[in-house]
């Protein structure tokens, strides 16, 4: 499984706009981490966004998480004010992992 | 359809005809058309603001503050109370910085613009700190402010810069006044308002003149390892940062460099954080041209223009409105109005129906630097010539009124 994170918008949108997508390949993780990522991705994929965008938020960030698993590609696109709790947990895991690697 | 129809029957002259007249070779015709268009636009904005006030019947809480701690969750409803208006200081510096920043911004709008909190009706100020994990951002969710801790690599705590806190709160002020749509030019104006008033709050707290201020947004939210001055520079858009980690500041400082981006999340809604560099630079130039404290005349002109703007206002209309407001607040032909005219011209926006005289911008800067108040013989010459044009405009206005009466009679 391969998970790609694209972050856009935010107060620092000028910086985020220039940053490339970041990729986590489960094949490079140890067994525990790979299982965690798989469980978080599965939960995020089956949970819809918690809210629809009101159009009133300013400087919020938007995220596109692409999950490639066994030849299937799933694209999740949510934002700070619309994300589900499951999407938030996957996002948090990806950020912590990418920071430490 | 309905709104458009109503505007047409309420106008003396249809807007499309007035816009056409702005291209007329006769200065007097252009001036008359400009004033009519701006007056119409102003009335639309003020009607909108009045209706907002009328609907806000709740008693004022005078912007009482509540800070909540998200404990690194993204679920705001689960956040815990960390500090309230009358409660003791917290042991958490993020909480206290957010509390003080909200208070400074509230005091700024109250003392400088006599505005009671964000909505003018004493709306409560709620903020959340420690949002999410490694969260490199602060945002306004439509009714509350949210601050991240940063990832510790690029960014640190977003409560550390008072201008960032004031930037987010000003999104609330904009929403309750013009309600500028968050797309393309109106969105870039929305962002610019937050940068301008965010910077003014910082200057007001530090009692800095326009010349003393750094005009930077977010100087304190980068980690020491990152070689960046700030997120944005109103003084020098495009030069806030330039390094391999962050890339290069993409903000333009002139209309000729306007950046066209897709109007979606990935394209920053048409580059709202990018093209805000153009009106940001215009405000900086106006403030330097006028001199002194930027929250005084320049701030009042921009605030009046924001209050008179509408959701769809774009750069040209906003520039025209600042020129009109400068004239209304400080006098036609005043130093303030001329500084506004020159500032917009320098970023590639000519005030509709007004042609700047050759060298005016340069003379304005020289006058401000040498005299402090911008008055000298050259500007007096300019004022005399504009006075003459205004007299001609008055005559033309009467002629237009006469033509209208005749056309009604037919």
Describe this structure as you would to a colleague:
The complex is a heterodimer of chains A (101) and B (410). Chain A has helices at 13-16, 31-46, 85-100; strands at 2-9, 22-25, 61-69, 72-79. With 101 residues, chain A is α+β, with helices and mostly antiparallel strands. Chain A has one domain (2-100). Chain A has a four-stranded antiparallel beta sheet with strand order 2-1-3-4. In chain A, α2 (31-46) runs antiparallel to α3. The two termini of chain A are 18 Å apart. The mean pLDDT of chain A is 95. With 410 residues, chain B is α/β, with parallel strands linked by helices. Among the domains of chain B are: 11-55 and 189-221 and 277-380, Orthogonal Bundle (Neutral Protease, domain 2), CATH 1.10.390.10; 65-160, Elastase, domain 1. Helices cover 50% and strands 8% of the residues of chain B. Chain B has 13 helices and nine strands. In chain B, α5 (162-176) packs across α6, α8 (277-290) packs antiparallel against α11 and α9 (297-308) packs across α10 (315-330). The relative contact order of chain B is 0.10. Mean pLDDT of chain B is 83; it is low at 1-18, 37-47, 49-57 and 371-380. Classes of the chains: A alpha+beta (101), B alpha/beta (410). Chains A and B meet through β1, α1, β3 and α3 of A and β4, α5 and β9 of B.
User: What radius of gyration of chain B results from the CA coordinates?
Assistant: 22 Å
Main sheet: strand order of chain A: 2-1-3-4
**Number of beta-strand segments of chain B:** 9
Number of helices of chain A: 3
CATH topology of the domain at 11-55 and 189-221 and 277-380 in chain B: Neutral Protease, domain 2
Shape of chain A: globular
Choose one word for the global shape of chain B. Answer: globular
């Amino acid at each position: 499984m391969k998970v790609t994170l694209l972050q856009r918008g935010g107060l620092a949108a000028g910086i985020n706009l220039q940053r490339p997508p970041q990729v986590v390949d489960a094949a490079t993780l140890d067994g525990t981490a790979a299982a965690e990522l798989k469980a978080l991705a599965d939960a995020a994929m089956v949970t819809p966004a918690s809210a629809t965008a009101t159009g009133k938020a300013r400087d919020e960030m938007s995220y596109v998480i692409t999950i490639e698993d066994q030849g299937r590609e799933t694209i999740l696109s949510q934002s700070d004010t619309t994300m589900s709790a499951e999407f938030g947990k996957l996002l948090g895991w990806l950020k912590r992992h990418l920071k430490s690697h | 359809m309905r709104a458009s129809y109503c505007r047409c029957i309420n106008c003396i002259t249809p807007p499309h005809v007035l816009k056409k007249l702005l291209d007329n070779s006769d200065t007097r015709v252009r001036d008359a058309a400009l004033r009519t268009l701006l007056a119409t636009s102003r009335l639309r904005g003020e009607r909108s603001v009045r209706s907002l006030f009328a609907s806000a019947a709740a008693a004022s809480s005078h912007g009482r503050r509540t800070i909540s701690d998200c404990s690194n969750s993204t679920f705001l409803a689960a956040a815990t109370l960390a500090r309230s208006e009358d409660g003791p200081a917290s042991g958490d510096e993020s909480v206290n910085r957010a509390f003080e920043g909200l208070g400074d911004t509230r005091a700024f709008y109250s003392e400088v613009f006599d505005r009671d909190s964000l909505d003018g009706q004493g709306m409560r100020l709620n903020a959340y700190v420690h949002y999410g994990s490694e969260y490199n951002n602060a945002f306004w969710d439509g009714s509350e402010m949210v601050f991240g801790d940063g990832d510790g690599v690029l960014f640190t705590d977003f409560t550390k810069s008072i201008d960032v806190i004031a930037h987010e709160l000003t999104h609330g002020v904009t929403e309750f006044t013009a309600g500028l749509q968050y797309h393309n030019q109106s969105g870039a104006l929305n962002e610019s308002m937050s940068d301008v008033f965010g910077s003014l709050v910082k200057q007001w707290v530090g009692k800095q003149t326009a010349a003393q201020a750094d005009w930077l947004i977010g100087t304190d939210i980068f980690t020491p390892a990152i070689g960046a001055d700030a997120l944005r520079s109103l003084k020098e858009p495009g030069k806030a940062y330039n390094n391999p980690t962050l890339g290069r500041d993409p903000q333009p400082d002139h209309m000729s460099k306007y950046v066209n981006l897709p109007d979606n999340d990935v394209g920053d809604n048409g580059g709202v954080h990018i093209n805000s560099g153009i009106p940001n630079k215009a405000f900086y130039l106006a403030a330097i041209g006028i001199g002194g404290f930027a929250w005084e005349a320049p701030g009042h002109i921009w605030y009046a223009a924001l209050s008179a703007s509408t959701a769809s206002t774009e750069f040209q209309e906003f520039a025209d409105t600042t020129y009109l407001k400068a004239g209304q607040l400080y006098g036609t032909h005043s130093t303030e109005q001329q500084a506004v005219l020159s500032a917009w011209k320098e970023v590639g926006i000519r005030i509709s129906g007004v042609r700047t005289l050759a060298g005016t911008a340069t003379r304005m800067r020289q006058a401000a630097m040498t005299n402090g108040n911008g008055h000298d013989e050259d500007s007096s010459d300019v004022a005399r010539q504009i006075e003459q044009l205004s007299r001609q405009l008055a005559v033309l206005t009467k002629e237009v009124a006469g033509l209208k009466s005749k056309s009604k009679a037919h």
